[in-house]
UniProtKB/TrEMBL annotation, chain A:
GO terms for molecular function: cytochrome-c oxidase activity; heme binding. GO terms for cellular component: membrane. This is Cytochrome C oxidase. Keywords: Electron transport, Heme, Iron, Membrane, Metal-binding, Respiratory chain, Transmembrane, Transmembrane helix, Transport. The chain crosses the membrane at residues 38-60, 87-117, 138-164, 184-209, 221-249, 282-303, 315-335, 347-372, 384-406, 418-444, 456-482, 502-525. It comes from Neotamlana sedimentorum. Its main location: membrane. Belongs to the heme-copper respiratory oxidase family. Residues 21-577 form the Cytochrome oxidase subunit I profile domain. PROSITE patterns: COX1 (PS50855), COX1_CUB (PS00077). It is a multi-pass membrane protein. The keyword Transmembrane applies.
From TrEMBL, chain B:
This is Cytochrome c oxidase subunit 2. It catalyses: 4 Fe(II)-[cytochrome c] + O2 + 8 H(+)(in) = 4 Fe(III)-[cytochrome c] + 2 H2O + 4 H(+)(out). Its cofactor is Cu cation. Residues 163-345 form the Cytochrome oxidase subunit II copper A binding domain. The lineage of its organism: Bacteria, Pseudomonadati, Bacteroidota, Flavobacteriia, Flavobacteriales.
Length: 596, 355
């Protein structure tokens, strides 16, 4: 019980002597268990999201062809196995929603912020274990509601993940804008509550519960990334909540925040004076920072994994922190680049072009710092390392096209085409997914006390890497050819007939890539039970989480919390016998702490 | 059938993988089974990194060669089009250059410095000079791009009323487009969806009392005289739509409750565009594909596809509901005489009403 007698901020759960199944596995307040709950819920949502993408990719490649898969999974939405146009839009919408929010926000941040913040800063648990539990269960509830919305009679939400009104506000405009959209909005409102509780907890924990010696400039970059991510979340998510609430008011209580002058199905509606552009502003005030909420944790994870596996300090630690801060700041003043052709004043377009292109600077710094970290390293090609290198690769490829989309003059012609789809999937979708995979491969031993099979990991990475490029690289070209996104089929435009073969290629890569995620799932779930037992510090890492015992204990360290004497990146430091010096090892006599 | 085959193939692939991995594992069991990368793993994956670099280059090349002519990088049909295309070409050149160099460094370092037992990594944590270099270079490049981009943007979006543009309203509804010409006075009559009177065929909600509205002309095809500036005023009656005219490098959303605008000058008539060598080649290619598809359709007892002839198009490019994918309008760019003749044939609003 020494763990609980330790003089610490929240000893009040020292009275959890006996853990029942329910308090240990279900209503747990232990951050490590909550992290696993997030991960498994996120994984299940990820399976749903990826399945959906494969289905609508099949429709794009082989439009209106009967398909047994559709018949089996879509039921009445695929009469004779031919996908219906409404459900196509619904699949696109829910795929986007699930992947952005449920997988890459909650699944990624929720898992790794929860797991790593207390472990890496040297804390017994989160500042509030109870709020943490509430946060997870709200996330779970919102996931359940989102999944339930798929079974609504008139169809799930189908207005695109950006749910622009009036399409999303008027049930007569689209079947999915009825009960499906109501459930979508309710689910998102609960999701936002969950995210805010989580973020507040992360911020408070990082600021208050660092162990002795863990100054802000000794924090691992993972923690910096999670910390700043949480701050951006707290700033921007409430704005989406307000947008959702106002939309609910418009839909159900007759207000006109976003609606005006509408004539639909032979009648004039009463709405007067609102503007859909207002909704776009509110949505993207979250929507753009959301990209970084998704991406920064992945970059943080990558920083840690690349340094550890290169057996080298991360290059430019302070520059990395500065670039995270710069990205975070800029991310809140660039949302208008989603709205260059929305009817917004063109002068605003100029301002947003300027701020948007500035983001390329801290991003470039990050990319070059990663590359320099590899230089003259001693790279240990563990699966986590491969995914981290893959992340840097897709981050560059996807990020570069951002300078086209962020340029308002160029955006005129590629706005809402497949060029955009290719861009954001590479830069935030695939990159963040790689970050998540890297994190899972790296910290699996910490989570489950067992190792993942590395050969399956290699296979998973290489096939995924090839398929990700195979899917999204050609997509830029059909976008530049002017093919709009969210078209159920392109067969009504002979102009695009010569793009059909590209779409088949893309879909085949998507199917293979999607199928190979089964390798990962198999590895993940079987290793929980049959994986090789992990040693305490398998990757020879410096950070504090590897000083905790393999078997989880409530309170993380059975004895006193280790004190920190150095930064997290003393790899291959001259003057030491081994190529890593964990943070809790005191400086040798005469050893200088690096003024990084 | 395709799907079934795909699924069967996938299952086989999965079984093959599973077998392969089993073999891998069995072969390794003798040595060690630590699930941490060994030197052998490092070497193998180091080489694969180089292989992957080659893959990235190859896929880039294949895409550029095979599909690089698809992008609307050339034969724009509006006055401002070439400036956008120029900027696009410059941006793409920069992107490809940076992409090729950085991907090379990333993957080559991953290969070159693959781990070996006994080697020590260089303890290299910081270098202000290097960091300054890769902060300043992007700053300079981006400053150039920003200045060029903003210049282009302001030129395109600034509407010069002194050019005396033809005013045309683009009117969007689920799921079709209408165009409204301002008529002889070149002033659009007032309109609001509340004034729509289907029974009297006042489908766009024009104010019947407004003198400016009397000579307005509503059409389902968009005709534009070549070389004459046109100013579009966009309106939507139900949900968001986006008027996307890719050949003219033009796009603007249509927003219920407000009027948005976009102006450009078409420079190439439809007929001229059809005669350009690139377009002849593209149309030929598309027709070859259509003939091939038609054969399959005829075999199934369905009708063959029509022969494709090039036309400019207005597409909806903002998700607007079920038939979003089929919301289009033909655009015809023609000589002033042809245009005048066409517009004379159209009915003026006051004559189109049913009383």
């Amino acid at each position: 019980m020494s763990a609980h007698e330790d003089n610490h901020a929240h000893d009040d759960h020292g009275h959890h002597h006996k853990e029942t199944f329910i308090t240990k596995y279900i209503f747990s307040i232990d951050h490590k268990m909550i992290a696993k709950q997030y991960l498994i819920t996120g994984t299940i949502m990820g399976i749903i999201g990826i399945m959906m993408s494969i289905m609508f990719r099949m429709q794009i490649a082989w439009p209106e062809e009967p398909n047994v898969l559709f018949e089996a999974l879509l039921g009445k939405w695929a009469p004779d196995g031919v996908m219906d146009a409404d459900i196509y839009l619904a699949l696109v919408t829910i795929h986007g929603t699930i992947m952005v929010f449920f997988v890459l926000t909650a699944g990624l941040s929720g898992t790794f912020s929860n797991l790593l913040i207390p472990l890496q800063i040297g804390a017994r648990d989160m500042a509030s274990g109870f709020l943490n539990m509430v946060s997870y269960w709200l996330f779970f509830l919102s996931s359940v509601i989102m999944v339930l919305s798929l079974f609504v009679e008139a169809g799930p939400a189908a207005a695109g993940w950006t749910i622009y009104p009036p399409l999303s506000a008027l049930p007569m405009a689209q079947g999915g804008s009825g009960a499906g959209m109501t459930l979508w909005l309710v689910s998102m409102a609960i999701f936002i509550a969950s995210s805010l509780l989580g973020s507040l907890n992360y911020v408070v924990t990082v600021l208050n519960l660092r162990t002795k010696g863990m100054s802000m400039t000794r924090l691992p970059l993972t923690i910096w990334a999670f910390f700043i991510t949480a701050v951006i979340g707290i700033i921007s998510f409430p704005v989406l909540l307000s947008a959702a609430l106002l939309l609910i008011m418009d839909r159900s209580f007759g207000t006109s925040f976003f609606l005006s002058d509408i004539f639909i199905q032979g009648e004039v509606l009463h709405y007067q004076g609102g503007s859909p552009v207002l909704f776009e502003h509110l949505f993207w005030f979250l929507g753009h920072p959301e990209v970084y909420i998704v991406l920064l944790p992945a970059l943080g994870i990558t920083s840690e994994i690349i340094a550890t596996n290169s057996r080298k300090p991360i290059f430019g630690y302070r520059a990395m922190i500065a670039s995270i801060l710069a990205i975070a700041f800029l991310s809140t003043i660039v949302w208008g680049h989603h709205m260059f052709v929305s009817g917004m004043n063109p002068f605003l377009g100029s301002v947003f072009t300027f701020t948007t292109l500035l983001i390329a600077i801290p991003s470039a710094v990050k990319a070059f710092n990663y590359i320099t970290t590899l230089w003259k390293g001693n790279l240990q090609m563990n699966p986590a390392m491969l995914f981290s290198i893959g992340l840097v690769s897709t981050f560059i490829t996807g990020g570069l096209t951002g300078i086209i989309l962020g340029d308002s003059a160029l955006d005129i012609n590629v706005h809402d085409t497949y060029f955009v789809v290719a861009h954001f999937h590479l830069v935030m979708g695939i990159s963040a997914l790689y970050g998540m995979f890297a994190g899972i491969y790296h910290w699996y031993p910490k989570m489950f006390g067992r190792m993942l099979n590395k050969n399956l990991g290699y296979l998973h990475f290489w096939v995924t890497a090839v398929c990700a490029y195979g899917v999204f690289f050609p997509m830029h070209f059909i976008g530049m050819a002017g093919l709009p996104r969210r078209y159920y089929t392109n067969s009504n435009f002979p102009l695009f007939d010569d793009l059909a073969d590209v779409n088949v290629v893309i879909t085949i890569f998507a199917i293979v890539g999607g199928a190979f995620q089964l390798v990962f799932l198999y590895n993940f779930f079987s290793s929980i039970f049959f994986g090789k037992k992990a040693e305490q510090n398998p990757w020879k890492s410096n950070t504090l989480e590897w000083t905790t015992p393999v078997e989880h204990v409530h309170g993380n360290w059975p004895g006193a919390i280790p004190e920190v004497h150095r930064w997290a990146y003393d790899y291959s430091k001259p003057g030491h016998d081994v190529d890593f010096v964990p943070q809790h090892i005191p400086l040798k006599e005469g050893e200088e702490e690096l003024q990084h | 059938m395709t799907a079934l085959l795909t699924i069967v193939i996938l299952v086989f692939i999965l079984i093959a993988i599973w077998q392969m991995v089993k073999i891998f594992d069995l072969a390794q069991a003798k040595n060690e089974n630590s699930q941490i990368a060994t030197d052998k793993d490092n070497t193998l994956n180091g080489y694969l990194m180089m292989g992957f670099l080659a893959f990235i280059y190859i896929i880039t090349l294949v895409c550029v060669v095979k599909w690089g002519d698809l992008p609307l990088l050339s034969n724009s049909a509006s006055e401002h089009g070439p400036t956008i295309d120029n900027l696009m070409a410059i941006s793409l050149a920069i992107i490809f250059l940076v992409q090729i160099i950085t991907q090379f460094l990333l993957h080559y370092f991953a290969f070159k410095y693959k781990g070996e037992k006994g080697r020590t990594a260089l303890f290299f944590a910081d270098n202000n000079k290097l960091e300054a270099i890769w902060t300043i270079i992007p700053v300079i490049v981006l400053a150039g791009l920003i200045i060029y981009g903003l210049n282009t943007w302001i030129n395109i979006m600034g509407v010069d009323e002194s050019d005396d543009p033809i005013v045309v309203e683009l009117y969007a509804q689920q799921f079709n487009w209408k165009a409204r010409y301002a008529g002889a006075d070149n002033t659009l009559g007032k309109a609001n969806v509340r004034l729509i009177d289907i029974d009297r065929a006042n489908i766009l909600g024009l104010d019947e009392a407004d003198p400016n509205a009397q000579d307005d002309i509503i059409t389902t095809e968009l005709h534009l005289p070549v070389g004459k500036p046109v100013l579009f005023k966009m309106r939507s009656q139900d949900v968001l739509h986006s008027a996307y005219m890719p050949h003219f490098r033009a796009q603007m959303n249509c927003v219920p409750g407000m009027i948005t605008q976009f102006g450009f000058t078409p420079t190439v008539t439809t007929e001229e565009m059809r005669q350009t060598p690139e377009m002849i080649e593209k149309v030929q290619h598309i027709n070859d594909i259509r003939v091939e598809k038609s054969e399959a359709l005829i075999a199934k007892g369905e009708d063959a596809l029509e022969r494709y002839e090039f036309d400019y198009l207005l597409l909806c490019n903002k998700i607007c509901g079920k038939s979003h994918y089929n919301m289009q309008m033909k655009i015809v760019v023609e000589t002033q005489e042809e245009y005048d003749a066409w517009i004379k044939e159209q009915k003026e609003f006051k004559n189109s009403l049913i009383n």
